[in-house]
Design a protein that fits this description.
Layout (H helix, E strand, L loop, with lengths): L9 E3 L14 H4 L7 H8 L13 H8 L10 H17 L8 H11 L24 E5 L6 H12 L3 E3 L8 E3 L2 E4 L6 H17 L8 H4 L10 H14 L5 E4 L9 H17 L4 E5 L1 H5 L4 H7 L1 E4 L6 H13 L11 H11 L3 H17 L7 H11 L3 H9 L7 H11 L3 H14 L4 H15 L6 H18 L14
Parallel strand pairs: 1-3, 2-7, 2-8, 5-6, 6-7
Antiparallel strand pairs: 3-4
Length: about 500
């Protein structure tokens, strides 16, 4: 699966002098956009797509217009808190990296000098009593489909320029405010370093600085990567040279299904970035990812947990339903219906991606069947066809039995993105660790068959799926009566 190509925003530096002593005179901080208040944030970032008029559109045009549902952005208080945390992390991360201080410039030269052992280079301003012991880190978590990645990108793209071009006499370098990449499927440290440097190349290519081609520096003539330690030195030098303010790693749950060696190497990478450069980081992953790191030190490096909730808080859920009912490009739009409201909550557990996906699937089904009207029956049919694995996962989420069932949401998400390999990896994780027996296991097998029915699997993936189903068949032989997923008495 190819990495996502994100828009690049470049801005000329506009400086706002700061009255805060530790920010004053630092162009990396004074060129950042001002922090916005909650009212202006909601106005600027809330997105409500308009429902198209039915009359002048063909059936295919109406179906295409329905996809704009996924443009909906509904801000909760948590989203505002995420922005404020993000802003503080970026700003404070630059405090001890002021590029117009002579000692910082000298330190930067040492960092870039291959003859100098980087572990022996100490950032001069870190001798201050106010210096942090480690860079800020945030572990943004929540169910797959909860909008972690979408909202993070929405905040970054709309509230921060990705690059600020400085033009003052004593500082005329580009400042890369943030980089965002996806964790490789096998969570290899070399793969992640390569992705970060390739993204840095892409971002700088859009500026007057041009493409530095760091991606080539870390490769040998035969195309293989150079040694990991050397790759790490290139990464540290590049991030420091271009004043990277924040590194965001998405799909961090891939660490969960990686080998122990790769998992430990990945944590070492973030240790080095935090210790040597003090660049803040945000890792985005599912809740159970944090649980595999039982070492307190590792948890600190992963970051302060920030769990993004579902949209089931009454006011937020009400706002979302209002937007959905306003979006019905059908001949016979319906008014609010309590039974349909309850079904949407029950079937999707208020996970944003699945709420929007189910409403989209229902609208398309209403058009294709000629009914031109949303009904409870149509919603249930659309859910069975679009999200077969949801029934098992949401049933347990509603009963606060999350456990390994969150893996099924992750599997469903990867299937929707046609990423069969990662879907199978996380499905295998579920089959091995989830406490599912008897009839519950049989139900999961049926859901798996429905989910993978339309997937184009190669021979290796088909064999993997068969192995997973065998594990679940073994569990289905154990009958636990009231311990089954649906808590039925036998």
């Amino acid at each position: 699966m190819m990495p996502k190509r994100r828009p690049i925003t470049v801005a000329k530096a506009h400086y706002t002098p700061s009255d805060v002593a530790m920010y004053a005179g630092n162009p990396l901080i004074e060129a950042l956009p001002p922090r916005l208040g909650s009212k202006l944030l909601r106005q600027r970032l809330t997105v409500k797509p308009n429902s198209p008029h039915v009359g002048h559109l063909s059936l295919s045009e109406r179906e295409e217009s329905i996809h704009t549902l996924f443009d909906i952005r509904l801000l909760s208080q948590q989203h505002l808190d995420l922005y404020y945390d993000m802003y503080s992390m970026i700003r404070y991360g630059y405090v001890h990296r002021n590029p117009v201080r002579a000692e910082v410039v000298a330190w930067s030269y040492d960092i870039a000098d291959p003859s100098v052992e980087q572990k022996e280079v100490t950032q001069p301003l870190l001798n201050d009593a106010s210096a942090p012991t480690v860079a800020d880190a945030l572990f943004l978590t929540g169910f797959s489909g909860n909008g972690k990645s979408t909202m993070t990108e929405h905040l970054l793209l709309n509230l921060f320029p990705q690059v600020i071009e400085h033009t003052v006499a004593d500082f005329d370098e580009p400042q890369v405010v943030y980089l965002k990449v996806d964790m490789p499927h096998n969570a290899s440290r070399g793969g992640l370093i390569s992705r970060v440097l390739t993204e840095l190349d892409r971002v700088l290519a859009a500026t007057s600085y041009g493409d530095p081609r760091y991606r080539d520096v870390i490769k040998k003539k035969n195309g293989d990567h150079i040694k990991l330690d050397a790759m790490m030195e290139v990464l540290i030098t590049a991030c420091n040279r271009h004043h990277v303010g924040l590194i965001v790693i998405d799909e961090f749950q891939n660490v969960k299904v990686a080998s122990l060696r790769y998992r430990n190497e990945m944590l070492q990478l973030f240790d080095e970035l935090a210790n040597q450069l003090f660049i803040p980081s945000i890792k985005i992953g599912t809740p159970d990812t944090l649980m595999i790191f039982d070492n307190a030190r590792h948890k600190r490096r992963l970051g302060k947990p920030f769990e993004l909730n579902r949209l089931n808080e009454p006011k937020t859920w009400e706002r979302l339903l209002t937007i959905l009912y306003d979006f019905q490009p059908l001949a016979h739009p319906i008014t609010r219906d309590d039974k349909i409201d309850a079904a949407l909550l029950h079937l999707t557990a208020a996970v944003p991606a699945f709420v929007l996906g189910l409403w989209e699937a229902t609208l398309i089904k209403a058009i294709r069947t000629g009914k031109e009207k949303i009904t409870l029956t149509l919603i249930k049919q659309a859910c069975r066809e679009r999200f077969p694995l949801l029934s098992t996962a949401t049933r347990n989420i509603h009963h606060n039995r999350r456990g390994g069932y969150a893996d099924l949401l992750t599997v469903q998400q990867y299937l929707a993105e046609d990423n069969n390999a990662l879907a199978l990896k996380h499905l295998n994780q579920f089959a091995e660790k989830a406490e599912v027996k008897g009839e519950a296991a049989s139900d999961v097998i049926k859901d798996i068959d429905s989910s993978f029915n339309a997937a184009e699997l190669n021979a290796k993936e088909r064999n993997k799926l068969l192995d997973i189903k065998k594990k679940l068949v073994e569990k289905s032989q154990a009958v636990l009566g009231p311990q089954t997923i649906e808590h039925k008495a036998t």
